[in-house]
Write a structure and sequence with these properties.
Main location: cytoplasm
Pfam families: Fe_dep_repr_C, Fe_dep_repress, FeoA
Shape: globular
Subunit structure: Homodimer.
Order of helices and strands: HEHHEEHHHEEHEEEHE
Radius of gyration: 19 Å
Number of helices: 8
Subcellular location: Cytoplasm
Helix content: 40-55%
Protein name: Transcriptional regulator MntR
Strand content: 15-25%
Length: 217
């Protein structure tokens, strides 16, 4: 039986919220989806019937391997769509999320496999997030927040933790794009804002921004 739009939204939330032990709480899901707790409980009971989660009252959910794969395949559709919109339709990376939200619920596997082929099997989406393969496998990345880096370090902008339009526009205006080198010039003691150098130009980034920028050395 095909997954419903609502089920896919819950699956995607599980993908984003699950911790390293495969656990997530009902409360976390409720806040993330802005859905009341009783509704989340009811949906998780259905997920348990499908063996996507292990559900016990008053305990964190445990996402099963089957559930992890189902969630990853929803995310695969979303991230492939974003990449297609950027690479083949010339959308800006700040304009693709909402469209991908709609197209990710298309059920045709052939459609997304063809999209993958046309894109030459990309490993990452336009925001630097890894794209799960057809089996739901995902590349592990060794990234850290820019806010955790020190003065004098030069790092490469690899991904963002939150790809909302306002933040992506903020980065675009400052010409902070993926794979650019960022040199940390100064960190303010007062508010932890960071002065960086990109392509010979200096910019001051807020603490909030540096916490959302993921980099590699």
């Amino acid at each position: 039986m095909r997954t419903t739009l609502t089920e896919e939204n819950y699956l995607k939330a599980l993908f984003h919220l699950v911790d390293n032990e495969g656990k997530v709480t009902i409360n976390e899901l409720s806040k993330f989806l802005n859905v009341k707790m009783p509704s989340v409980n009811n949906m998780m009971k259905k997920f348990a019937d499908k063996s996507w989660v292990i559900y016990e009252t008053y305990k964190p959910l445990i996402v099963t391997e089957k559930g992890r794969k189902e969630a990853a395949l929803v995310v695969r559709k979303h991230r492939l769509t974003e990449m297609f919109l950027v690479k083949k339709m010339n959308f800006g990376w700040e304009n693709v999320h909402e469209i991908a939200e709609q197209l990710e619920h298309v059920h045709s596997t052939i459609f997304f496999d063809k999209m993958d082929e046309i894109l030459d099997y990309p490993k990452f989406d336009p925001h630097g997030e890894p794209i799960p393969d057809k089996e739901g496998n995902i590349i592990a990345q060794d990234l850290q927040r820019l806010s955790n880096c020190g003065v004098g370090e030069t790092v490469i902008f690899a991904s963002v933790t939150l790809s909302d339009d306002a933040f992506l526009n903020y980065l675009t205006e400052r010409k902070l794009l993926l794979n650019t080198k960022i040199k940390i010039i100064k960190i303010e003691n007062f508010d932890k804002s960071v002065t960086v150098e990109v392509d010979g130009k200096r910019e001051v980034l807020s603490r909030k921004a540096t916490e959302k920028i993921l980099v590699k050395k």
